[in-house]
Specification:
The structure holds two protein chains of two kinds. Chain A is 0% helix and 51% strand. Chain A contains no helices and eleven strands. In chain A, the strands form two sheets. In chain A, strands 2, 4, 5, 6, 9, 10 and 11 form a seven-stranded mixed β-sheet that branches. A four-stranded antiparallel β-sheet of chain A has the order 1-3-8-7, with no helix packed on it. In chain B, strands 2, 4, 5, 9, 10 and 11 form a six-stranded mixed β-sheet that branches. Chain B is an all-beta fold. The chains are: A mainly beta, B mainly beta. The interface between A and B is medium-sized, with 25 and 25 residues.
């Protein structure tokens, strides 16, 4: 049981490049989400999904796209990377978004945009 | 919009002292509150989950309380050890998780 797996762990991009951060969970969780963590600001929600085929925007969605074609996978796409997207990205999953739901996090992807 | 605040931002204590970490939130209509530990350069490890109907939750040396009416939660760590040095984050679940900025704890040997 691997939990939540994120790849890659580290990435350097040039401004304007695109890339996809991968997230996979093996707990059959319905709810998955992406956060970014910046110094002194806590984690902020980018996008989330309540099940396959259903996604919605969080607090800071601009510049990011998501899709959820399977229960297990929830990739995050950066369309045209900007230095402001330098951050640590975390993927999380939980059984649902309501009560009795413990959230589990991946190990993070540290992204630098130069 | 839910606002979550953690005070203090940093804390340094000698080994053996009890730790008290505070978390406050603005909207009491929550499903649950979760405490996490984060080591430098690592992901978040779940420590305790308190449901909205609970007043406290315990796991080993850790005890977390929840007072929804006042919008507060406190994490107590008894008899601190150098291995407890980390950043502690609280997250409030009102359908989405809202995080505080964390308290960075240093336990001096």
């Amino acid at each position: 049981n691997a939990g939540v797996t994120q790849t890659p762990k580290f990435q350097v991009l040039k401004t304007g490049q695109s890339m996809t951060l991968q997230c996979a969970q093996d707990m059959n969780h319905e709810y998955m989400s992406w956060y970014r963590q910046d110094p002194g600001m806590g984690l902020r929600l980018i996008h989330y999904s309540v099940g396959a085929g259903i996604t919605d925007q969080g607090e800071v969605p601009n510049g990011y796209n998501v899709s959820r074609s399977t229960t297990e996978d929830f990739p995050l796409r950066l369309l045209s990377a900007a230095p402001s997207q330098t951050s640590v990205y975390f993927c999380a999953s939980s059984y649902s978004s309501g009560k009795n739901t413990e959230a589990f996090f991946g190990q993070g992807t540290r992204l630098t945009v130069v | 919009k839910q606002e979550v605040t953690q005070i203090p931002a940093a804390l340094s204590v000698p080994e053996g002292e009890n730790l008290v970490l505070n978390c406050s939130f603005t909207d009491s209509a929550i499903y649950n509150l979760q405490w996490f530990r984060q080591d430098p350069g690592k992901g978040l490890t779940s420590l305790l989950l308190i449901q909205s109907s609970q007043r406290e939750q315990t796991s080993g040396r850790l005890n977390a309380s929840l007072d929804k009416s006042s919008g507060r939660s406190t994490l107590y760590i008894a008899a601190s050890q150098p291995g407890d040095s980390a950043t502690y984050l609280c997250a409030v679940n009102d359908y989405k998780l809202s995080f505080g900025a964390g308290t960075t704890v240093t336990v001096r040997a």
